[in-house]
Design goal:
By secondary structure, this protein is an alpha+beta fold. The chain has a single domain, classed as 2-Layer Sandwich (Dna Ligase, domain 1). Strand 2 and strand 3 form a beta hairpin. The longest helix is centred in the C-terminal third of the chain and has 14 residues. The termini are close together.
C-alpha cells in the first residue's frame, strides 16, 4: 500500500508544499518505508525531494521545503514492497493445488 496526496492551488503564486507536507504524516500509516514530494514550479519545472524513512526523518528542516516551489504538487508515502512479495510467495508455497500456477509478480509501483 502507498499513500498519495495531491494539491492544486487556485492561486498560481501560492506554495503547495506546506499543504503537502502537512498531509503526508496523515497518510504515513499507508507506507512508512520512504516518502517524497514533487512540485511543479514556473514554466512547468518539476522539483523533487525524497528519501528513505518516516516523513519526519526525510523532511527534518523547513529549509528542505523551501527548495520545492510551485502551486501544485504530489506527496507520496511508500510501503516496502519486498515484504509484500515475501508474504505472497510464502502463501503461494503453502498451496497444495498443482493445477494453480504460483503467482508471479510482473510489476509493482515504486
Amino acid at each position: 500500500m502507498c499513500g498519495i496526496i495531491a494539491v492544486i492551488l487556485a492561486d498560481p503564486s501560492g506554495s503547495a508544499v506546506t499543504d503537502i507536507h502537512n498531509g503526508l504524516p496523515v497518510l504515513q500509516h499507508r507506507g512508512q518505508d520512504a516518502c517524497g514530494i514533487a512540485t511543479c514550479g514556473q514554466g512547468g519545472r518539476i522539483y523533487t525531494r525524497k528519501g528513505n524513512g518516516l516523513c519526519s526523518e526525510v523532511f527534518r528542516t523547513p529549509e528542505q521545503l523551501m527548495d520545492l516551489p510551485g502551486s501544485m504538487g504530489l506527496g507520496h508515502c511508500k510501503f516496502l514492497h519486498i515484504q509484500l512479495f515475501a508474504d505472497i510467495w510464502s502463501f503461494a508455497n503453502k498451496l497444495s493445488f498443482h493445477h494453480v500456477p504460483t503467482p508471479t509478480p510482473c510489476f509493482f509501483h515504486i
